């Protein structure tokens, strides 16, 4: 058995960097969060305020609004992606000529910079010369304007996320589906099960670990979304209709240079995320364990 | 093979669905390309999907712009350095996590995951304060801090790329039989020699995927770059965003910049498409 010391030595550079840029800043803002420290206020000094920042935070309507938008966006987008992606994966399961090309093109949105995706969708939906409002207006007489209608804007950011991330679900599900064992399915066919029964009682339970992995990654990523929504709706407009937590911090809290309050909000956001990550991860590993045994 | 009506119908349905999906995927990108080929005057013509005259000035104007060139160079320098750094560090770290029994290594592994999953927006203010207030030396004009430097961005992209690389490589290194390195150790090889001679060649495809995907993630990153740089280290994505905030956006040039931004992505899809799924699920789902 080799010495643990060598192992720690190999691990050290990564841990040091992750500590310096990933953990140390939060230890620092844990400290800053207890102070009143605003570069725009009369005194630019740090003044101790205890938990006042956190007390303001839980009643901050803008923050709670942003939290609501983030959760609604995540829920609608991820569920749609899961359903569409699963259906598309079924369609890719068997071999047909041209499958590789369809697959490759389907992968494209995954690698595009989120900001560029925001730009693409902005050009599609921009009132004036975007084809989407043009077609909806001229063909269907539907007045579509993401600059003024909160509903239209919200639907558009969800559609954009579906466009962006459904390929991820499709390809992961496909990988999962094609590695499923064939025997249970064949046995069920012999016993006279129909398609729905096979799907419900065989495919779905066997796919559970893969579905949960996808769900975990998608939820965590959707909660982080900033770039494309910020670009598409120009900072979460109209009003606060599409302003997620990330955009709120980026566009509103950060420029205010209210460092004490911003620190508290950053910390709380990170805390929510870690708890969500941990809960999802634990349930995922439990399911994986039961599925494996 | 016997051809039945049912078969024709079901294949027809599959093709129909995929053609629709492919069109939905391509059209938005194509539309941006169309815009990038239009002059300001043509912009407000009725939408058509065809390019009649290619207004190359959108591209040449951007490429000949010294500011934009600098942004592009910054992006290339930062992404490449970060990808190389991350791949080397992750190889060492993953080897340690895979082969040594280290107390608390499971916790370390999970902590790296939360760092990858943490919202970047929560990092903005902490990192900004860190870069301007804590990692700084000297006063007045001789003052140096991490804010607006290449090295600053290279280090902080490790927040999401390093955990990603460790998770992706873990499965691949676990898959290399430990007996191989044991045999080399018996022959008197040192840890670094084992890594170089045995692990590196066997993990080469995985390392290449790690390198490429880390590069793309660094290239695509916007939020941290926008907040933690001002002039000297701005990247191509911040350049793209700047196009919109300026009053009277030149949409044609903006589309041209966006097209230039997504060229690397298209190349990656063309060459590494097989590994993208495995990469994005951190090796949890094998393709």
Structure description:
Chain A has one domain (48-292): Orthogonal Bundle (MetI-like fold). Chain A has twelve helices and two strands. The two termini of chain A are 30 Å apart. With 293 residues, chain A is mostly helical. The longest helix of chain A has 34 residues, at 259-292. Chain B is mostly helical and 287 residues long. Chain B folds into two domains: 1-55; 58-280, MetI-like (MetI-like fold). Chain B has 13 helices and two strands; from the N terminus they run H-H-H-H-H-E-E-H-H-H-H-H-H-H-H. Chain B has a two-stranded antiparallel sheet with strand order 1-2. Chain B is flat and about 75 Å long. Chain B starts with a helix and ends in a 7-residue tail after the last helix. The model of chain B has no long low-confidence stretch (mean pLDDT 86).
Quick overview:
The complex is a heterodimer of chains A (about 290) and B (about 290). Chain A contains 12 helices and 2 strands. By secondary structure, chain A is mainly α.
Q: At the fourth CATH level, what is the homologous superfamily of chain A? A: MetI-like
Please report the distance between the alpha carbons of the first and last residues of chain B: 29 Å
Query: Which fold name corresponds to the CATH topology of chain A?
Result: MetI-like fold
Order of helices and strands of chain A: HEEHHHHHHHHHHH
Q: Separation of termini of chain A? A: 30 Å
Percent helix range of chain A:
over 70%
Q: Quick one: which chains have the greatest interface?
A: A-B, 96 and 95 residues
* CATH fold-level assignment of the largest domain in chain B: MetI-like fold
Name the poorly predicted regions of chain A.
none
Which sheet architecture does the biggest sheet of chain A show?
A: 2 strands, antiparallel
- The topology string of helices and strands of chain B comes to HHHHHEEHHHHHHHH
Number of domains of chain B: 2
DSSP strand tally of chain B:
2
Strand order of the largest sheet of chain A: 1-2
Q: Which residue ranges of chain B are poorly predicted, with pLDDT under 50 across at least 5 consecutive positions?
A: none
Q: Give the overall silhouette of chain B.
A: flat
The portion of residues forming beta strands of chain B comes to under 5%
Spatial strand arrangement across the major sheet of chain B: 1-2
CATH C-level of chain A:
Mainly Alpha
Helix content of chain B: over 70%
């Amino acid at each position: 058995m080799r010495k643990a010391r060598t192992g720690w030595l190999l691990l050290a550079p990564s841990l040091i960097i992750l500590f310096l840029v990933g953990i140390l800043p939060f230890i620092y803002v844990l400290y800053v969060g207890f102070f009143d420290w605003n570069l725009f206020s009369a005194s630019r000094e740090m003044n101790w305020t205890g938990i006042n920042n956190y007390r303001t935070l839980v009643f901050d309507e803008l923050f709670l609004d942003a939290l609501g938008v983030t959760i609604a966006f995540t829920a609608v987008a991820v569920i749609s992606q899961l359903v569409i992606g699963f259906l598309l994966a079924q369609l890719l399961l068997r071999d047909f000529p041209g499958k590789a090309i369809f697959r490759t093109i389907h992968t494209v949105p995954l690698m595009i910079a989120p900001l560029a995706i925001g730009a693409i969708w902005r050009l599609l939906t921009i009132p004036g010369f975007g084809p989407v409002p043009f077609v909806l207006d001229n063909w269907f007489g539907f007045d579509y304007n993401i600059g003024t209608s909160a509903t239209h804007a919200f639907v558009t950011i969800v559609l954009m996320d579906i466009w962006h991330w459904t390929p991820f679900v499709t390809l992961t599900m496909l990988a999962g589906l094609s590695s499923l064992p064939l025997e249970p399915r064949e046995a069920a066919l012999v016993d006279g099960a129909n398609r729905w029964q096979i799907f419900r009682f065989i495919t779905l339970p066997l796919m559970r670990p893969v579905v949960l992995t996808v769900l975990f990654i998608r939820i965590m990523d959707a909660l982080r979304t900033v770039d494309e929504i910020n670009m598409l709706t120009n900072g979460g407009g109209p009003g606060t209709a599409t302003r997620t937590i990330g955009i709120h911090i980026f566009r509103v809290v950060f420029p205010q240079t209210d460092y004490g309050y911003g620190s508290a909000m950053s910390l709380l956001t990170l805390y929510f995320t870690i708890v969500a990550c941990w809960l999802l991860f634990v349930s995922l590993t439990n399911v994986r364990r039961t599925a494996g045994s | 093979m016997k051809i039945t009506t049912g078969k024709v119908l079901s294949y027809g349905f599959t093709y129909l669905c995929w053609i629709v999906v492919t069109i939905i995927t391509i059209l938005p990108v194509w539309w941006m390309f169309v815009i990038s080929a239009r002059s300001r005057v043509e912009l407000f013509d009725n939408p058509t999907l065809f390019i009649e005259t290619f207004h190359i000035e959108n591209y040449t104007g951007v490429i000949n712009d010294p500011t934009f060139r600098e942004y592009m160079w910054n992006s290339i320098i930062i992404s490449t350095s970060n990808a190389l750094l991350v791949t080397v560090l992750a190889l060492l770290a993953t080897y340690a996590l895979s082969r040594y029994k280290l107390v608390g290594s499971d916790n370390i592994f999970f902590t790296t995951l939360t760092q990858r999953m943490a919202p970047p927006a929560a990092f903005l203010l902490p990192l900004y304060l860190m870069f301007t207030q804590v990692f700084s030396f000297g006063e007045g004009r001789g003052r140096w801090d991490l804010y607006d430097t290449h090295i600053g961005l290279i280090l902080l992209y490790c927040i999401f790329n390093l955990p990603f690389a460790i998770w992706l490589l873990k499965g691949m290194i676990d898959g290399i039989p430990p007996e191989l390195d044991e045999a080399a150790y018996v022959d008197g090889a040192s840890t670094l020699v084992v890594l170089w001679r045995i692990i590196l060649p066997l993990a080469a495809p995985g390392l290449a995927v790690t390198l490429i995907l880390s590069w793309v993630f660094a290239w695509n990153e916007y939020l941290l770059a926008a907040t933690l740089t001002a002039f000297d280290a701005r990247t191509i994505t911040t350049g793209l965003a700047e196009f919109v905030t300026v009053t009277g956006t030149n949409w044609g040039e903006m589309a041209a910049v966006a097209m230039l931004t997504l060229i690397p992505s298209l190349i990656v899809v063309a060459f590494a498409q097989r590994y993208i799924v495995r990469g994005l699920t951190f090796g949890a789902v094998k393709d």
